[in-house]
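User: I'm writing a tutorial on reading structure tokens. Could you give me a worked example: one chain, its sequence, then its tokens, then a sentence or two explaining what the tokens reveal?
Assistant: Sure. Here is the example chain.
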Amino acid sequence: MKFKTILSVFVAVLMLFSCIKHEIIPAPTPKVDLQCKFSGTVNGTSTEFIQNVSGYDCSSQNEINLLNPPAQSSEIYCAEMSSTTASTPSVKIRLGKISWTGAAQTDLPLTSFDGFFTSASNILPTYKDDCTNGFNVVYKDASGTIYASHEASTNFQDAKFTNIVQESDATGDYSKFVCTFNCYVYYQSGTNPAPGLDSIRIQNGQFKGWFKK
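And here are its predicted structure tokens:
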């Protein structure tokens, strides 16, 4: 009798545990690791903009021209290191233009987005003011005066993209990069600069950031 009692308890406990539903833990959602930093010598001064320091971060506010088919839409990709803190300088690089037939940005195929940044002409881009098949640098000083590179500049200028990594997550599709460049940027708008300071030289500029589809 004692054995039967123990057996009955064992069976009851076994049935109890078999009825317990196991919690299903969903797989972690992939998330792109977005890191950014700018460093270089700006007008003779060593300069660094570091992510999450003094409000600095990278943003990707692209310049999009959407047209209805059969006309082609186009886009200039932008990445800017700027701060939420007032009276701080910023630097922006622009690369373009990519074109596609479609009236919405989502019509651009991901393969076209990825291929755009890995093409030889965009890894070593030439300077173009309107970014048609080219590259442009925009610098804003602490007073808000804006300077931009010129394709016709007689001063040395170059640009190169390396460490290109393309990833996607729930927030979008990204092309991460490191861009190194040297150029002069010239007064464009804002407070008039002091005489003789209508241009700024950027040496050994290195922009680590991303473009977003």
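What the tokens reveal: The chain is about 15% helix and 45% strand. The helical segments are 2-19, 110-118, 120-123.
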